[in-house]
Amino acid sequence: MNTPQKQPAATVSLGNFSIPVFERTDIKNGVEYRGFFFTFTERGQRKQKRCNTLEKAKAAALKVIRDATHHQPHNREISLSEFADFSSAMQMLRQHPGATLAGAIAEWTQAQTALGTRGNLADAVSTFLRGLEEAKLPVITVADLLTRFMAAKTKEGLSRFYLDDIERKLTRFADSFRCNIASIQPEEITQWLAKQGGGRNANNLRASIATLFGFARDHGFLSRDKKHSAELVKKVKEKVSDIGKRFGAVVSR
């Protein structure tokens, strides 16, 4: 099916209502069928009607307008602000051929009702688009990422002690998470850390994992538009050692 032209073939108007009619050529079984269509809203549902001639489409559009306005009260004049809102809305809708004001409002109402108090439609669209972008991210396992990470850190000329220490910590993590780095959730990391021991040990492991996740983000394996999972893991409270307690007591004197 070909994309309809941007400019309507005709516009049917009656009073304050108008419906643009567009030409479209459909291809079915290798045969082209030229026709004309328009969209409208009936009882809150968006519909589309297609006719094989422009005259039939115009007649059908006029009937839709008459049916929609039949028995409608017109004893109240709209205010200047209402007219300004209507004019602005119609100007924006003209950039989207085939859309109607009633249809746009119906879709917005349905979407906002589904969202409730959890956000607005713009937020929902932004989240949806971000999800599409994240779906395009290349997949890499934690083990493969760790191999790249260690190669890069070795080239940086870091100390052997640091390299051995962080490789040992991250190998434990990679052995537990044999999956795509982007699929790991913050609560999974939190649960894993709790099994590795608490206090400073857990926080040191968390820092090493966060370094690996940061490397993944820098190299395009995680989204750059939001915090990665390791950044969302909270530090655990560290117990003060006996030496620290005694030192604190001396200082307090």
Structural topology:
Layout: E1 10-14, E2 17-28, E3 31-42, E4 45-51, H1 54-69, H2 80-93, H3 101-115, H4 121-135, H5 142-155, H6 160-176, H7 186-195, H8 199-218, H9 242-252
Antiparallel strand pairs: 1-2, 2-3, 3-4
Helix pairs in contact: 5-6, 6-8
Write down the Rg: 31 Å
Number of helix segments? 9
Mean pLDDT: 85
Helix content: 40-55%
Order of helices and strands: EEEEHHHHHHHHH
Cross-sheet strand order for the largest sheet: 1-2-3-4
The total of beta strands comes to: 4
Question: How would you classify the helix and strand content by structural class?
Answer: alpha+beta
Poorly predicted tracts of residues: 1-5, 249-253
Beginning-to-end CA distance, first to last residue: 86 Å
Biggest beta sheet attributes: 4 strands, antiparallel
| Broad shape | elongated
Hey, roughly how much beta strand do the residues contain?
5-15%
Number of domains: 2
